[in-house]
TrEMBL record:
Gene3D superfamilies per UniProt: Nucleotide cyclase, Periplasmic binding protein-like II, Transferase(Phosphotransferase) domain 1
Biased composition (Polar residues): 896-905
Bilayer topology term: Single-pass membrane protein
Coiled coil: 635-666
Organism annotation: Mizuhopecten yessoensis (Japanese scallop)
Top-rank taxon, per record: Eukaryota
InterPro entries xrefs: A/G_cyclase (IPR001054), Cyclic_nucleotide_synthase (IPR050401), Kinase-like_dom_sf (IPR011009), Nucleotide_cyclase (IPR029787), PBP_domain (IPR024370), Prot_kinase_dom (IPR000719), Ser-Thr/Tyr_kinase_cat_dom (IPR001245)
Protein name (record): guanylate cyclase
N-terminal signal peptide: none
GO CC terms, sorted: plasma membrane
GO annotation (BP), single: receptor guanylyl cyclase signaling pathway
Length: 1050
């Protein structure tokens, strides 16, 4: 058939066979040609050029049509002939058509019909089925006999009978039949079968029976006619039976004879069904009667429900409450997105307006269910008809879907009725789309779109057209499922007032308090055909599909539709461009190609070309094959967010560990190291009672010193260096050093454990005293001050209580008489070298070791108690002790230092024993020769290097713990010429030093650079930070985190 699109023609187009050929060979190019006006008197033939459309692909439709053109015109047959190919897309040229005549080519019949509908004043050829499906006007043709003929079963069968009488074969053409009632453009669809080579006789019988049944069965012939095709005429059926079906053989046997035999056998078996049927009929009749009774009962029940107004919910039965989550959701971080309504930011809208628009449902509870009252007043629903009440009951009981807001009924407030449905606590979908705190992936967006399409597909499958679909009516419930609301109004209003468009009713109500631009903005989701009709057309399923396309664009851009035109067009101008220029929203670059294609076909300007929601769901499934739900997508985003948080926690834990190490290092200078570790871990320090601790008081005597003649800087530098050296020695014995009132220093042993024996503590503390008195660096410091200060030592052992005192500046304190007794011993000690003043308790504890000699010093009264005191000396061999000069800080040359030695106390701490044993094994005489060559397995250089390396680590550790003393020592040594010469003689130790001494002078810049080079390290091995030049440190690259999460504010 020939389909055409000529607006305002005023009747049906009539074409002769010659005019058809003239249209497709370019003879006639204008509709107002005299050839057309002559055959179409009274029609309004436009003065427009003819747009000719043909099939682009290879098709049987093209073959039948060109065969008919060849039958109409010998010139056509000679010039073009019959062909089936249309357009060569590779070379961009048609195969046979005249390129100057054919304007457009469509893929398949659906493409041709779409082009005809799209272009006015166009014409093309289609099958009868496609003409009817697309609702395209078909031309009436003047046949060979001069009669006006339309395409139908009877006219095509007339052509069959005409050619059947004139042909002996079954492959003849039906084009241009000569009978009066024959349609001139027709053709057969053939089935090819084996006639003599059938091998499976059972399949052969079934095939022959099927073919004969398809040609003769009445229902099948009716179905064929409904599908736009013509069944074979009776004469053609008999001819096919006699020529083909009765001559088919299988292994030499006639298949038709076998078919007739089977039919006869089946007819005999038919008689056996009489008894079962005679029994079944009464049973079936009873079932039908019961079913009818049930239907009648149901109808009566429905009528009773209508009379009782069971669709009505009294307002008193609803327990209302305020859900602050709706309001708080608007306070989240919504980006400053452009809005085409006001051409401003969303934040510029007044707070009251936001509140009114946000409350789309007022929450409440009804019979255990959370419900929401839709705050839309529709006066047309105040007086309901019986038909509308019946519709309400049907929707209440039958419409239930996870993506559709379920309707519970209607309630009445102040004589006005409001709809009650499921409560969606998450609010509008647009709130989620506009809120930047949600990181929406493409899978998440596809899931949102899939929920909307799924809900609309359910409504359309129940013959419910929404009519008002836009993003504002897509709500999200507590389970993050998208639900469609306001679907009830269109059906209810159509039932209440069939002659009034529901869109006009809702527009009249919703536009009451809106401005011109706001009204135009609401029309962005309305399909163009409804806009062009000024809302006189009722909404259709296709118009809902168009609205869904706009929502789809919103989901993937997360902006209002047409927001890209916010700076250039008003909403009213946008509506005008939609209707006149087919304006559509722009895609974002992040939108997948499949989604863009889906949008394009869904917002097609021609409603017939839009897909159904069933097809939309298939396309969305192809775009999102994982089929994730909204909750799945949110959980995936949450997992990514948690992974980022875990990485941040690991980073913060590492920083906390470094901070704890720094805190522990700082606290260890203020209190015992084990107490500092406890505090740095956040634990409390409980007071402890020690039955015995050993205390040594170092008193710095200066009775003959005139302080007015001293340089304060030199005095403080002397005290700092002295404390530094004493700290080094105290660490060797695990002794806690603390200042005491006046120029005294307390050394306390036994605080780490109350299980240390007093004998062991006293021996260690006495050894420490002699180490202090005989230390060459301390002696050098005393000489540097011209012996103006002398040291006196007093030692005592006794019980004590320890703990932290103070709240603002807590400090570690030791309570007990042992402090006072030791102070008294120190102040009364003789000012002599290598003597220590001890109490009787100490002497009793150490005399069994046979390492010390004692002489009675007299009695001492402390707080009313009398103590017998002794002065003791050490009687052991001499041993060298490393000085701070080995660390590159200062001191006498290593080869010149000799002090008294003693046998290491084996009951002391293992680490101390190790250091003492190493010091003892490395002892040397003044001339630098080893004492015992038989016990030494290393050379003198190796021993000295090992000793220096060990002491360097110890020196640098203690220098970091006492930075002020360390800096003062540096300045003092830098001013010393002796230190300058020593630095020159020992240049081989430069690799162990933490900084260079340039020309014997340390500037403030060099000291500052030294501090910057000192880096805290893990103190689990030896408890000190070390210099970069001594231990190479690998820098760890700091990872950068880009947190694309759901809650970036956290």
């Amino acid at each position: 058939m020939l389909g055409y699109n000529i607006p305002d023609l005023g009747g049906r187009l009539v074409l002769t066979r010659s005019t058809i050929v003239g249209i497709f060979n370019g003879t006639y190019t204008w509709w107002n040609d005299t050839i057309f006006t002559a055959t179409n008197p009274g029609l309004n033939m436009p003065q427009k050029e003819i747009i000719v459309i043909a099939r682009a692909d290879k098709s049987g439709t093209t073959s039948l049509f060109t065969e008919a053109l060849g039958a109409f015109s010998p010139n056509w047959k000679q010039q073009y002939g019959m062909f089936s190919k249309g357009y060569d897309s590779v070379n961009n040229v048609p195969y046979h058509w005249d390129p100057t005549v054919i304007n457009y080519y469509g893929q398949q019949n659906r493409g041709v019909s779409g082009l005809i509908l799209s272009f006015r004043n166009s014409i093309g050829y289609l099958s009868v089925a496609d003409i009817y499906e697309a609702d395209i006007n078909a031309a009436t043709i003047v046949n060979k006999a001069g009669r006006l003929i339309d395409a139908n079963s009877s006219t095509v069968q007339s052509a069959m009978d005409y050619f059947s009488d004139r042909n002996t074969n079954l492959t003849f053409s039906l084009a241009d039949a000569g009978s009066e009632s024959a349609y001139p453009i027709a053709g057969f669809t053939h089935i090819i079968i084996y006639k003599t080579k059938m091998k499976n006789c059972q399949s052969s019988k079934e095939l022959i029976r099927y073919l004969y049944w398809a040609m003769t069965d009445k229902d099948q012939r009716i179905t064929c006619d409904r599908k736009g095709m013509s069944p074979l005429s009776t004469s053609m059926v008999q001819r096919i039976k006699s020529v083909v079906l009765t001559h088919v053989t299988c292994h030499g046997a006639n298949v038709w004879a076998m078919v007739e035999s089977d039919i006869a056998a089946e007819n005999k078996e038919v008689q056996q069904w009489i008894l079962p049927v005679s029994i079944t009929i009464p049973i079936v009749s009873l079932c039908i009667l019961a079913l009818c009774s049930f239907i009648i009962k149901q109808r009566l029940h429905i009528q009773k429900m209508i009379d009782n107004d069971e669709w009505f919910i009294p307002i008193e039965d609803i327990l209302f409450y305020f859900d602050g989550r709706d309001r708080s959701s608007m306070n989240s971080r919504i980006a400053d997105r452009p809005s085409i309504i006001s051409n401003a930011s969303v934040r510029d809208i007044q707070d009251d307006d936001i509140l009114i628009r946000q409350i789309i449902q007022w929450p409440g509870k009804y019979r255990g269910s959370q419900i929401g009252i839709r705050l839309i007043e529709v006066t047309e629903l105040n007086q309901l008809t019986r038909q509308t009440k019946h519709q309400l009951l049907l929707m209440k009981n039958r419409i239930s879907h996870i993506n559709v807001v379920r309707m519970f009924g209607l309630t009445e407030v102040d004589d006005k009725k409001y709809l009650i449905g499921d409560y969606c606590s998450k609010g509008r979908m647009t709130n989620v789309l506009r809120d930047d705190k949600f990181n929406l992936s493409n899978d998440f967006k596809c899931t949102l779109a899939g929920d909307v399409a799924n809900g609309m597909h359910f409504l359309h499958s129940n013959d419910i057209i929404h009519g008002f679909l836009r993003s504002d009516v897509c709500l999200i419930d507590a389970r993050w499922q998208v639900k469609i609301c306001d679907w009830e109004y269109g059906t209810l209003l159509s039932s209440q007032a069939p002659n009034i468009s529901p869109i006009l009713v809702m527009r009249k109500k919703s536009d009451k308090d809106l401005g011109t631009h706001d009204i135009a903005f609401k029309n962005f989701w309305v399909s163009p055909e409804i806009l062009r009709s000024d809302f006189k057309l009722n909404p259709t399923k296709e118009s809902d599909v168009y609205s869904f396309a706009i929502i789809l664009q919103e989901i993937f851009t997360r902006e209002e539709p047409y927001a890209e035109h916010a700076d250039s067009l008003t909403p009213t101008e946008v509506i005008r461009a939609i209707t006149l220029n087919t304006l559509r929203p722009e895609h974002s670059e992040e939108t997948p190609v499949n989604i863009r294609q889906l949008m394009e076909i869904c917002w097609n300007d021609h409603a017939i070309s839009r897909p159904s929601f069933e097809q939309v769901l298939k396309l969305l499934k192809r775009a999102n094959p994982l089929k994730r739900t909204v909750v799945d997508s949110m959980m995936s985003s949450m997992e990514e967010y948690i992974a980022h948080l875990e990485e941040r926690i690991e980073e913060k834990n590492a920083e906390l560990k470094v901070s704890n190490n720094k805190l522990e290092t700082t606290l260890s200078g203020l209190m015992p190291e084990f107490i500092a570790k406890v505090i740095s871990k956040g634990k409390s320090v409980r007071p402890m009672m020690f039955p015995a601790i050993a205390v040594v008081i170092l008193d710095i005597s200066h009775s003959s010193v005139n302080f007015e003649n001293l340089n304060p800087r030199d005095v403080i530098a002397f005290i700092n260096e002295l404390c530094f050296e004493i700290d080094l020695l105290a660490r060797k014995y695990s002794v806690y050093t603390a200042p005491v009132s006046g120029c005294s220093l307390a050394l306390v042993h036994g605080l780490e454990s109350s299980k240390i024996k007093p004998d062991e503590m006293c021996i260690s503390m006495v050894n420490l005293c002699f180490d202090i008195l005989s230390h060459e660096e301390i002696g050098r410091l005393t000489k540097s001050m011209e012996n103006k200060f002398v040291f006196r030592l007093g030692a005592h052992v006794g019980p004590a209580i320890t703990g932290l005192s103070g709240t603002t500046s807590p400090s570690y304190v030791v309570f007990g008489d042992c402090i006072d007794v030791s102070q008294a011993l120190a102040r009364t000690a003789p000012v002599t070298c290598l003597h220590v003043h001890v109490s009787e308790n100490v002497w009793c504890a150490i005399k069994r070791s046979k390492r010390f000699e004692a002489s009675t010093a007299g009695e001492l009264s402390v707080k009313g108690r009398i103590f017998v005191t002794y002065t003791i000396t050490r009687i052991q061999e001499r041993v060298k002790y490393a000085t701070s000069e080995d660390s590159g800080v200062g001191g006498e040359p290593h080869s010149q230092a000799l002090t008294e030695s003693y046998e290491p106390n084996k009951t002391c701490d293992p680490s101390v024993n190790m250091i003492e044993q190493e010091s003892g094994s490395n002892a040397v005489a003044q001339n630098g020769i080893l004492n015992d060559k038989n016990t030494v397995h290393q050379s003198q250089d190796e021993l000295e290097k090992h000793c220096r390396d060990m002491v360097v680590v110890q020196m640098i550790s203690d220098s970091i713990k006492h930075p002020e003393a360390f800096r003062d020592k540096l300045r003092s040594r830098a001013r010393s010429k002796h230190h300058h010469n020593y630095h020159k003689r020992h240049s081989s130790l430069q690799k162990h030093r933490s900084h260079d001494l340039n020309n014997g002078s340390d500037t403030l810049e060099s000291i500052t650079s030294l501090q910057s080079e000192i880096k805290p390290m893990d103190t689990s091995n030896f408890g000190v930070p070390v210099s970069k030049q001594f231990v190479p440190v690998k820098r760890k690259r700091k990872r950068k985190f880009f947190l694309n999460n759901i809650y970036p504010e956290n």
